[in-house]
Design a protein that fits this description.
65 residues; alpha/beta; three-stranded parallel β-sheet; 3 helices; 43% helix
């Protein structure tokens, strides 16, 4: 199974998309990421979440590994 990385998962569209994808593909297969905004409890409790800076390729590499 492939994994899905959602950037901006704390925003309005990203949070709904992340929960939908987790329901469809499994919680552990969808990794939610955000930059500054604190994620909702629902988002945090439903699967993996990490704070990253999408402009820094090294942080993205770490999450992908």
């Amino acid at each position: 199974m492939r994994r899905i990385l959602v950037t901006g998962a704390c925003g309005q569209i990203g949070s709904e998309l992340t929960l939908f994808l987790r329901e469809r593909y499994g919680n552990e297969n969808v990794i939610a990421t955000g930059h500054k905004t604190k994620p909702s409890e629902n988002l945090l409790n439903s699967g993996p979440f990490q704070f990253i800076d999408c402009t820094d390729i090294n942080t993205i590499k770490e999450v992908v590994k």
